[in-house]
Amino acid sequence: MSTAAGRPRDPEVDRRIADAAVDLFGRTGWAGFSMDAVARAAGVGKASIYLRHPSKERLLADALTHRLADVADVDTGTLRGDLVLLTRQLLDIYRGESGRAVLRLIVEAPSIPDVGSRWESLRESQVLAARAMVRRGIGRGEIPAETSVTMLLDTLCGGVLMHVWSAPEHLQARMAADVESYAAELVDFLVGAVRRDI
Amino acid sequence: MSTAAGRPRDPEVDRRIADAAVDLFGRTGWAGFSMDAVARAAGVGKASIYLRHPSKERLLADALTHRLADVADVDTGTLRGDLVLLTRQLLDIYRGESGRAVLRLIVEAPSIPDVGSRWESLRESQVLAARAMVRRGIGRGEIPAETSVTMLLDTLCGGVLMHVWSAPEHLQARMAADVESYAAELVDFLVGAVRRDI
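Structure tokens for the assembled complex are given below, as produced in the milestone run.
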């Protein structure tokens, strides 16, 4: 990708801007979100931001896409493998500042121009990808055909969210270390729920 | 209960103030929360509010306690009965303005004096009550002794949250009508997950 002026863009700067934008929104919400504050936090000039994102609405929408886009887009060949990966991605998102940003989005996105619709379509594509994982599992005979895809995914995604919220500050570091075993435990619990008749 | 002046308090006014305070906080967050705005929304004089709540921090903390206090404090005699009731209470809270208030609390409570600590202890007592339900179920032999109480409750509470969030505006009314059957379906799904070895 290149700028209008033809210079190649620095992906490291893209990433710093996106991270700073998501973190700032998580801390202050839309009320405290400005190009100035993002530029300061990212350690770049305001011109670098305007070059990439013509408005602060677009900046936040682009940053969210950048930070959340890889969720659920995986196919490991087994339902268990796919869901463990999904769980790890969700843990990554919900922990820390990006988790606060997601909470704020649920509350504030409908009233922020541009951001609401982008957030909706991002969420929708993630839900579709996650549903595809479960349907592939049904297709391979790993779980029964009558499995409630929605129930399985709601309890998985919601379970991750509760796990993160209920961890006190001083346990967050330990939680980070236990991501792998937690993901396996959660997936086994829920897949066990649907496959017990097989 | 009576006021300092000795007049009995009107519980209907208490309730209107609590509802207005929770709804306003859900819509605007702490930034837009004021005694004036709550008085207007509740249709009462500001003096009526100050008589009950000496500060806006106390007002919000009291309102939350008023609105959320009955969650999980039930004992129907069976695990399934208890969890279905818990699910219905959670659905009631997460839907509509009080759900937005809960989301905002998770993000904002740590930085609002008084409210953060009250919210923490309210949440804690609800978690303890919910854990007691599951332990009673284990005690009665309804589910295995090695059941992960945390995993069962995280997936139940989180599942309800996701169910509410993912419903588009125009389906909220239908969701209200289906509360009973949804609660039964969710509880059967999760209790099935833990009792499959019995």
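Chain B touches chain A at residues 29, 31, 100, 103-104, 106-107, 127, 148, 151, 153-163, 165-166, 185-186, 189-190, 192-194, 196 (CB under 8 Å). Residues 69-195 of chain B form a domain with the Tetracycline Repressor; domain 2 fold (CATH 1.10.357.10). Further analysis is deferred to the final report.
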